[in-house]
Automatic annotation (TrEMBL):
UniProt entry keywords in alphabetical sequence: Calcium, Hydrolase, Metal-binding, Signal
Name by which UniProt lists this protein: Sulfatase-like hydrolase/transferase
Keyword Hydrolase tagged: yes
Molecular function GO labels: arylsulfatase activity; metal ion binding
Organism field: Pinibacter aurantiacus
Family classification: Belongs to the sulfatase family.
Name of one Pfam family that matches: Sulfatase
Top-rank taxon, per record: Bacteria
Length: 499
């Protein structure tokens, strides 16, 4: 009996110790803004739009001064973030050709893809003649899948934009819970809501957004739901509810807001705060950023209320640079914006906060990438990345904490069809094969990319081009063609970019 009692005691002790160890794993909250420009928030220099909650993350953690995404377009950028791999490695080079999945067609997405295939909308590159729907390939492993397999509860709340085939949906990619929409954009509220300001933009991208995406369905774990609340507010509330429901176990919460992506809609009472701003599109854009900051404040507040802020890594960034074609932001002094590989399109606000692990109020100068989010998250969770794949990010924690004084990356690369770039040290080479231009910039002296120094340093341009070519040789072929070519004015001239 004594031996049995001792055995039971140690068994119970072992189980309790295991549970305690699981509970001590850090939580991970990753907040992603949509088309938020580098200078659109206070901590990065914006003097018009107060963003106290986002700024508080920088005050409690580290602000990266040279944070980059991997694509100037939403969907490819998100594919790289969730996999920790350059999206070109698995053919996700261009924007996913999504269709708004409405309530009536939610169960007909397979029929949509059969129709798309017949029209030749998808390029079949496989030897077995298997047609691959746009979006994440089946064999790509997301951060959510890795964390879930290691005891984490996982939730995604917001914009998906990574494919709507069964194996591409959030539930199949590691998320226990999903609330949001699958498409690239969606309305924030009914156009007929009297409390909402609707601001249309005379732009080729804005017009179809209002028409197509008004039919996008909001879904909760695959089932369409009705919603009347302003969507940014609702996403914040859903995130708070997820934290409450999972506060006793380690969790990974991914909150990909669609703000401040078009269509421009915001509550009237928030828009009124910017009545001194002359341009109506800027009034609404600023109000959307304010609502985004308020929603993030709810998330931060809930973590503090539950005491989880002491054991939670919080990451905030944007999927790409500000959309200058809306005329609501210009990204200056950075060059260009969304759609292009100039820094205005790929340099993003990037903040990490982790109590007692990252010095409060720190800034970090060396170039970092959103590729690093995957490696940082698995690193702080004490998990090894899955074997058999090349991971392009690094765990940033030793770098931003001061433990490692080296630069996280020697080189960063970009390729979007014929529009390409490489940053190596302080030099950046941009190539647009369609426009037949090559520019070399010394970012240490010219962060605005105004002065091409390729004629002054031809060997440096040649070196970077050779590095870029070697990287391209390691990549796969695009799984589908670009959707269209976009003509974008960048300062004093127009460029054409693929999407």
């Amino acid at each position: 009996m004594l031996l049995r009692a001792i055995t039971i005691f140690f068994l119970v002790f072992s189980i309790n110790a295991h549970v305690l160890q699981a509970q001590q794993k850090p939580n991970i909250v990753f907040i992603l803004a949509d088309d938020l420009g580098y200078h659109d928030i206070g901590t990065y220099g914006n003097k018009v739009v107060p963003t106290p909650h986002i700024d508080s993350l920088a005050l409690s953690g580290v602000k990266m001064l040279n944070g980059y995404c991997t694509s100037p377009i939403c969907s490819p950028s998100r594919a790289a973030i969730l996999t920790g791999r350059y999206q070109q490695r698995f053919g996700f080079e261009f924007q996913e050709k999504d269709a708004p999945i409405g309530k009536l067609s939610l169960m007909q997405k397979k029929k949509f893809y059969r129709r798309a295939h017949k029209e030749g909308d998808i390029i079949d590159l496989s030897k077995d003649s298997i047609v691959v729907p746009n979006g994440l390939p089946k064999d790509e492993i997301t951060l959510a899948q890795v964390l879930k397999q290691n005891g984490y509860k996982t939730g995604a709340i917001g914009k998906w934009n990574l494919g709507v085939a069964d194996y591409q949906l959030p539930g199949a990619k590691g998320f226990d819970y999903f609330y949001g929409f699958y498409a690239a954009a969606g309305l924030y509220a009914s156009e007929k809501d009297p409390t909402i300001v609707n601001q249309h933009i005379d732009d080729i991208l804005d017009r179809p957004t209002w028409f197509r995406h008004k039919y996008s369905a909001l879904v909760r774990n695959g089932e369409a739901v009705d919603e009347t609340e302003y969507l940014t507010n609702k996403f914040g509330e859903e995130a708070v509810a997820f934290i409450e429901q999972n506060k006793s176990s380690p969790f990974f919460l991914y909150v990909p807001f669609n703000a401040p992506h078009t269509p421009f809609q915001a509550p009237k009472d928030i828009v009124a705060r910017f009545s001194n701003v002359a341009e109506p599109q800027k009034q609404v854009y600023y109000a959307m950023i304010t609502a985004l900051d308020d929603a993030i404040g709810k998330i931060i507040g809930k973590l503090k209320e539950t005491g989880l802020d002491k054991n939670t890594l919080i990451i905030f960034t944007s999927d790409n640079g500000g959309a200058t074609y809306t005329t609501a932001t210009d990204n200056e002094p950075l060059k260009g914006g969304k759609m292009c590989e100039f820094d205005g399109g790929i340099k993003v606000p990037y903040i990490m906060s982790y109590a007692d692990k990252i010095p409060a109020g720190a800034t970090y100068q060396s170039p970092v990438s959103t590729l690093d989010i995957f490696s940082t998250a698995v690193g702080v969770a004490g998990i090894a990345a899955p074997a058999g794949k090349v991971y392009d990010g690094v765990n940033l924690l030793p770098f931003v904490s001061g433990e490692n004084s080296n630069a996280p990356h020697d080189i960063l690369y970009w390729r979007n069809g014929y529009s390409k770039a490489i940053r190596k040290g302080e030099y950046k080479l941009y190539i647009n094969e369609k426009e037949k231009v090559e520019f070399l910039y010394d970012l240490s002296k010219d962060p605005g990319e105004r002065n091409d120094v390729s004629t002054n340093f031809p060997e440096k341009a040649k070196e970077l081009k050779a590095d870029l070519n070697r990287w391209e040789e390691t990549l796969g072929k695009p799984m589908w063609k670009s959707r269209f070519h976009f003509r974008l004015k960048v300062r004093d001239r127009y460029f054409i970019f693929p999407t």
